[in-house]
Amino acid sequence: MDSSKKIKELRESTGMNRKEFCDYYHIPYRTVTEWERDTRHAPEYVLRLLEYHIRTEKLLHQLEKDEK
């Protein structure tokens, strides 16, 4: 999967729009826009870190729900 599709998939998996995603992860809006439009490419390590963080947060939220 190319980086533009991956970054969009990751963002959409959070349920955030582009602005919310950028604000939450402290990534400039223009950078994410260019990554998604495939005019620039996100470094592989950034994609891996974002994916790891998003998955970890989802797991934590699930654990919190299960404890209630």
Secondary structure elements and pairings:
Layout: H1 3-14, H2 18-25, H3 29-36, H4 44-67
Low-confidence stretches: none
Which structural class is indicated by helix and strand composition? Answer: mainly alpha
The gyration radius over C-alpha positions equals 13 Å
| Count of individual domains | 1
Q: What summary fits the major beta sheet?
A: none
Net shape: elongated
| Average pLDDT metric | 92
- Annotation, overall tally of beta strands: 0
Strand content: under 5%
Intertermini distance: 37 Å
Total of DSSP H or I helical runs spanning 4+ residues: 4
- The H-and-E topology, N to C, reads as HHHH
Helix fraction by DSSP (H/I, runs of at least 4): over 70%
Q: Looking at the chains present, what oligomeric state does this protein adopt?
A: single chain
